[in-house]
Amino acid sequence: NANANANTNSVLNRNTNDKTNTTVATNTIEPPAPLQVVTIAADKDRDDLTDMEEELYGTKVSLPDSDKDGFVDGTEVKNLYSPLKADETLLKSGLVTEYKNKKLDWSALYPTSWLADTADPEGREVLFTPDTGEGEWIEVLITDNPTQQSAAEWYSALYPDNSAVGKFSVVEVAGLTGIVTSNGLTYYLANGSTIIGFVYNVGTAQSAHFQTTFAIIVKSFTLTNDTAP
């Protein structure tokens, strides 16, 4: 565990682009569900990749540092580095693919083996679905914010009488200020007259198998029309 902590700190220092990439999840069809208490699925070697993610990224389930470069696998993946080859980016490794939403001017990385598809003609709701797991999926949503509220104001307005309101932290992602809920499964960002959301839906699963993968999508999110302040 001591080595794992040291490696975690090292890779964070190495990554010069390590901003807090956190976003806002909002459903364009209905308000987000109340906060869920979700456990993390089995992680045999405690490297922040669940055993299912180890299979997804080709890493070794019983070895925290699969490429033996001194950096823990899960930390490398979170910081968009390959866990299989030293100093190689995650995108260059082919383990992830860039999704480009040309209609709404944003992009993000997601696992190459996953399915990415829009749930509406305007591309305001994009679903990233694994080929394994228990009905889990990750979505990026765009909804209107005509009064240009902050993400915290917008979220609190959805739950004026709900105890879940207030259980969030302020974050910055892609140059935008937003919030992340206390369970770490939902992010909201305010971008002028829109709210950008990232939501990890565990579906029928009893625990989350892809939380580090969720972090990849959030961290790699980029506004491609340079509208961020």
Descriptive labels:
229 residues, alpha+beta, three-stranded antiparallel beta sheet, 6 helices, 12 strands
Q: What summary fits the major beta sheet? A: 7 strands, antiparallel
What are the secondary-structure elements, in order, as H or E?
Answer: HEHHHEEEEEHEEEEEHE
Mean pLDDT: 84
Question: Strand order, biggest sheet?
Answer: 4-5-6-10-9-8-7
Termini separation comes to 40 Å
Percent range for β-strand residues: 25-35%
Task: Indicate the structural class.
Answer: alpha+beta
Task: Give an account of the 3D structure.
This protein is α+β, with helices and mostly antiparallel strands and 229 residues long. 21% of the residues lie in helices and 27% in strands. The chain has a seven-stranded antiparallel beta sheet with strand order 4-5-6-10-9-8-7, with helices on both faces. Strands 2-3-12 form a three-stranded antiparallel beta sheet. The longest helix is centred in the first third of the chain and has 13 residues. The relative contact order is 0.22. The N terminus is likely disordered.
How would you concisely characterize the structure shown here?
The chain has 229 residues and is of the alpha+beta class. The chain is globular and about 50 Å long. The termini are far apart.
